[in-house]
Amino acid sequence: MLTEFALPIQSLLLTTGAGLTTLTLKSADPSADFSPNGLLERLSLMHHLQSFAIHFDAPRFDDDVREQSLIMTHVTLPNLRSFGFEGKSAYLEALLPHITTPLLEKLYIRPLEQRELSVPHLLQFVITTENLTGWLRSAVLRFTTWDASVELYPDVGAQTYSLCLCIWGSGRDRQGAFPARVLDVLRPVLSEVVHLTLEYREGVAAIKFGQRDHQPDRTDWRKILIC
Predict the structure, then answer these.
(1) pTM of the entire structure?
(2) What is residue 63's three-state secondary structure?
């Protein structure tokens, strides 16, 4: 695990890490230059990687479409089973079209954006990774007044989710807005779900600022239940 690092992407620690099976990159220093293409080049050497996680807001990443169009490297990670990402969705969207993970079993995504979330490459990645979404029969939707997450499981009673998507909010949204948004992103892969669990917990911040009286919007709940 590399935490609060200013490690250049050309560092020998990464270029000689071909035998790594687990790698976590967390809290990059503002001076770190971690472009998607540079990261892909390093990942292309890590054929044994089984678990990979990114937890940072790439400080110097320009999410302009022009930068994404310069990515030339395509990586196949033949042994990757688990992938986690927390950061800018634009960085994730730049990575995913250039990664193939035939054995991926577990995917965790938490974008930093609070409002509009556009992740077409994430959706395409999920759909085309057959080992990940071959069977998604059960869903657990957890939400508070500040965030929401949906966990998709291969079957009712399964202990480990296949896919988890979390989103943040401002606390000013309607009570049903978060779960409606998170499910809307994944709607194309929800057709096989036959069991839905709803879990709501009122956040401490909501109680403190007197937001417990917010009334749920029926439109939001219709969006949830027609998935």
Answers:
(1) 0.81
(2) coil
